[in-house]
Amino acid sequence: MTRLEKARKIETILDRIHPLPAVPLSHEDPYTLLVAVVLSAQCTDERVNQVTPALFARARTPAEMAKLRTSEIQGLIRSCGLAPQKAKAIRELSRLLVEEHAGRVPDDLDALEALPGVGHKTASVVLVQAFGRPAFPVDTHIHRLAARWGLSSGKNVVQTERDLKKVYPAEKWGKIHLQIIYFGRSHCPARGHDLAACPICSWAASKTRIRAEARR
Fold it and tell me: Domain 30-131 belongs to what architecture?
């Protein structure tokens, strides 16, 4: 089976199990999604969704957020972890949105990546989920599963993104990105996983991969 054939079969299974995947981070617009994704670094989506209501009740636009003290933002997001760095980034990116982008989140990858605290994955999430622009965000979970399923060499997330973009059409990147995340949570954990019983790993994972993971 070629990599492209395998990708199509995986897509069919994902469509059956997670046909309409929703963005897991609660948000109302591109700005609140951007802030939520920044907060999600090394933090669960559930925790972020617990924190953002109070944060956005205090400030839900770049102009309002930029007026807050960093210490106040930090206090509101403390339970997310890395609060000092995230609070500073949220305040500074809000200030730059006001000063350089008329208070709007840009729908451009380079402009997003230029904002404090916004890396390639965060920018890609905002681009595809807030604006519907082609992007395939790859986090550690997608990187792991793409390698496990033989869709990528697994060398690094940059290569994984390139490999996945080759086997899936651009108009499906946003959906499949979410489907893989949800499938990983529901069927395909990193540890203690019975690959032989998995709807995808049972046939997609190589014997070498199965033996390697069984030894962990």
Answer: Orthogonal Bundle (1.10)
DSSP per residue, 57-115: HH--SHHHHHTS-HHHHHHHHGGGSSHHHHHHHHHHHHHHHHHHHTT---S-HHHHHTS
In the chain, domain spans:
3-21+137-214, 30-131
**Catalytic machinery residues:** 121, 139
* Separation of alpha carbons 112 and 196, rounded Å: 41
Report which of 156, 152, 127 is spatially closest to residue 204, judged by C-alpha positions: 152
CB 149 within 8 A of CB 200: yes
Distance CA 160, CA 151 (A): 8
Q: How far apart are CA 21 and CA 214, in angstroms?
A: 30
pLDDT digits (tens, 9 = 90+) for 70-119: 999 999 999 998 999 999 999 999 999 999 999 999 999 999 999 999 99
The CATH architecture annotation of domain 3-21+137-214 reads Orthogonal Bundle (1.10)
